[in-house]
Amino acid sequence: MNPKKTENKMQIRETRHSELDTILSVARSAFGSDEVPDLVRDLLSDPTANPTLSLLAFDGDRAVGHILFTSAQMEPEAPLSISILAPLAVVPDRQKQGIGRKLIEHGLRMLRESGIDLVFVLGHPAYYPRHGFRTAGWLGFNAPYPIPEKDADAWMVQALQPGKCISYKGTVICAEKLNRPEHWRE
Ligand SMILES: CC(C)(COP(=O)(O)OP(=O)(O)OC[C@H]1O[C@@H](n2cnc3c(N)ncnc32)[C@H](O)[C@@H]1OP(=O)(O)O)[C@@H](O)C(=O)NCCC(=O)NCCS
Questions:
Q1: Ligand 1 and 88: CB distance under 6 A
Q2: 116 lines ligand 1 (CB under 6 A)
Q3: Which domain holds residue 112?
């Protein structure tokens, strides 16, 4: 299969309520267990996660990737709009073909346009810096649960409205369904 050729057919769009099973199936296929799909389902029905941004990538009729952003707050309170990227999933036979990158770029563009200031992620420190994320701890942003020193680089942030966020520091308060220690281990 020629990845370039299939990329041309790729479509990314916001998910519909009727697509929950499709979203969960992409997450299950990518992560190989029910833990992450359960979290996605919980977050999509968690009012404290709103506004969410949920995007599916389609190759023709087939859903091949999903990304979810959920709302967060800062403590102490700050006049910032904050989002957390979690999770990102690409089905195994379509990984390493740029689908993850496209979902991240598409999501960040939409969040920037909607006025979101900061996007956080706890993820692979070799992957997300390719998409503009930088270590958050050094900038003074704590995760909802302490991240072990050895994984400090995995807690990352990206400012979408340059110049606005520089003077703020604090602890990120995530949606209730994400606010469990097991979700904050890399
Ligand atoms: C991680 C994931 C979303 C990346 O999606 P993708 O579509 O395969 O990624 P892209 O095609 O945009 O990028 C591929 C590149 O990222 C690298 N990459 C993928 N997963 C990586 C990881 N866990 N750590 C470091 N680099 C990784 C690949 O090696 C590849 O590098 P290359 O371009 O030098 O060959 C996908 O592999 C996946 O769903 N994995 C299982 C679930 C998961 O771990 N999700 C992330 C949760 S934070």
A1: yes
A2: no
A3: 3-184
